[in-house]
Amino acid sequence: MLIIFTQWSMFLFFSINLFFSSIVCLDSKLLIKRPLTFMNHTNINICKNFSMEHSVDKHMNKETKFQVFSEIMDDSNDEAFYYPDDDGKLILTGIEVHVQLASPFKAFCSCRSIASPVTKLNVSKNPDVYKTGPAKSRKKVYDGFKKVLDDIVRNYKPVVSISKTHYDTEAPLNVEEYIKWFYESKEFTEHEDVDEKTLNDLLLNENQYTCAGCRGEVGTLPYISPMSFLYAVGVCKVLDCKIANKVSFDRKCYEYFDLPKGYQVTQTLNPLGRDGHIDLSTGKVVRVSKVQFEEDTARRVENNPENLDFNRSGVALAEIVTAACELTRSEILETCRTIYERVVFNGLSNGNRFRGNFRFDINLSRPDGTNRIEVKNLNSFAVINKSVKNYDPEKEYKYKSEEREESSALSKLMSRQDAEGRGESVLEKIKNIFTSVLKDVRNRDKYAPLGTTMKWDKEHGLRAMRHKLSSASYGNYFEVNIPVLYQSDELIKRITDCLPEQLDSLDKFVAQYPGVKRELLKEVYKHNSWVKYYERLCSELDPQVAASHFVNLLLPVVKATNKPLMPPQRFAELIKLVLDHRVNLSDVEDAMPALLDHGGSFEDYFGGRNLLLHSLKRTRELIDDFLKEHPLDPKKSRNSDYVTKVTSELVRSTGSKISYQFVREYVTKLLNE
Question: Which of 147, 161, 408, 537 is deepest in the core (most CB within 10 A)?
Fold first, then answer.
């Protein structure tokens, strides 16, 4: 009797789940077929009469014209990059990162991706190393991946002839065979890399880059975009993951308004990458447990939350998950920043966090795993810093549905009552039945809350959104519509060889410069772009001099002003003026904010302000003339105050037109002879 009841319960559970997902999908289909309202302008046909002048949207940072890396502040100058006031407290932390891959294609169809690789900067003003470096890397990666795919299409001889309707789900299919079929089939539509202006235009056109699969319409089947798949393999490589030879996909089933088909194609059961690691500057190692290739969801239209923009639906994602580890706040930030830089500087994502290219979910709890919270969708290192700082392990975080001020759009949709007030809707009844099944005693542990899902609110801090359930609460089922693929080690190497050179570990970096203080190099190492900048400085200056002035002179001004770095050759030219005693270091420090914007000669800049010093030849002549009238007292050679007094008097006698440092060294040398 118990067996029959169990079988009936399972049948009821899956039947209700399937029926409920179908209803949600149907209702969302009807919803997008209705006229959409953009900024109070209703369009009968989606996007055909859409005016770019009305495209003011939070997704686009409330600007019609915008730049790829310029929202709020430059990625290099985010205030939380620099780990302020770390209290040293350890927090059990797990990090999930959702990375929109810089592929021209979506993940499981041939639609154009709004995260397409930006390889040319034609909008940014005065692009510096932070922008040009990643753009060049994206170009290199895109061209490399395209060459790999073109070579397979031209030269690979398939063992079997396949068609989409005759996949063998039991035996893996060579990735090369699948690629050749894909590019020779009617499924393929060509898309290329883009420049800044083109990407801006893509983001302004809502619901234009979609298909039946993106919109979750019944009867459509997914198929892997080979180009997007190669980008996901690249992410596994830069995080030092073991890359799976056998690749399969599954459906993660859950209910949410921006997921109308009721499931997400992902790799929960068999991730593409496993067992990666991130070495922190503190010596700790954060393990990357898995990297999954999956699809993004739709985006809620800002001014009409019951409508969706399906341009984002299906965009290729790499979900990066770290294993739980005790970290301080600065180490959490360093982990996030390291993941960001490895992916972006290797050309695998555009990296614009404020457009959704990077979204961080931070899981925090006590060392024993209790009092767990998950802060969702953080797109700023500054906000990550504030969220972690706001977390108090001693405070109990619990979600209470009655205290929630606003329900989700899906809840509003399902709780609609007709004008005659006839009670709950059909969808509401289905939801209640479904919920009662989930509360069955045998499922209680699976659906018991593990913690609280929260969001960051700048006015209220951490705010509870809903209960956090275990991964077992999702229905994860093998995706039979996508073939199981096999990629050889040789193919993986061909893919990963397209990536730029990797940044060495901190110890290797320090070993390259044995005469430079480790503390200085540790600061330089915090950013991939800083390492490259420093390497170029060392071609012009002594490594110790370059490190000292870069860390102590240039970086503090860049952090304080949010301005880009000046070109390394220019900074080296400025430091040489100090080393040649043509300007005082103190005057350079005072002028640094203005010098970041100065495009002319540094000698003209200081000369025009009467700050340029005499040449060393003239300086020696002035010193000798002064000392003829004021001879040195050799008995006071070890008296530091005496040296300071003589130096100050000598500099004042010339109208402060000679280098204080040079004079002091010169006087000290004469006294010691």
Answer: 537
